[in-house]
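Lab notes, practical 5.
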Amino acid sequence: MALRVAIGGFGAIGKVVAEALDQGIEGMSLAAVSARDSGRAEATVATYRQPVPVLPLDRLWETANLVVECAPAKHLRELAEPTLVHGRTLVTLSCGALLDNFDLVDLARRQGGRILVPTGALLALDAVQAAALGGSISRVQMITRKPPGGLEGAPHLVENQIRVTGLTEPKLVFSGTAREAARGFPANVNVAAALAMAGLGPDRTMIDIWADPAVDRNMHRIEVDADAASFSMEIRNVPSLENPRTGRLTALSVIALLRKLSSPLAIGT
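Output from the prediction step:
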């Protein structure tokens, strides 16, 4: 029997994942979607090979074994709590919000649910997790550079009256912990939260964020020192055309995770 998958959030990421499921992922089927504009979503899914219902976030669990959360971070709990209460699997991209709602992990444990975090834009996650098992990690640092337009409106910039429009040179707009970064840039650095959960935790993982007018891609450099290995990795992720705060690789990472769940061969941890 195919694993039924519902998509919570029908924007730049959710649409790509839903379309991939509609086109066919072995062992899986699209069960439902949720969207802020239900009318537009209904018109879109009506064109699919197998049209599905458009439901509120808190009802997606009714149709699915697995729910993919790709909605704004403020809606995480609205979707996640009923999903996990009913023992479903949750794939979440709002892992920054998960840091402040970590009781959801305990809820999943009690109810037989599961929370999965895709690799997303950070190809170093597997290596960081392995290093954490191999001994003490002494340092994890992430340096993020983004086009200024992709950072506009972030709470940290608004609260501190930091302007990124009209920049002619790179500007360091944040330096601190992953927990602080996730709160200050909820639409931008979920990658920081994922990195923190893979390694040293949100209060010992350090993040620098630059607004850089010279770049046209979201750039993340990871530097790790551990007993098992020291390494650095850099990725330049092309921003989504629909939402410059999101890299195109993020949706593809979700699809890769879904394929891995149903494949007889799985590569990577």
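Observations recorded by the TA: The chain has a mean pLDDT of 92. DSSP finds ten helices and ten strands in the chain.
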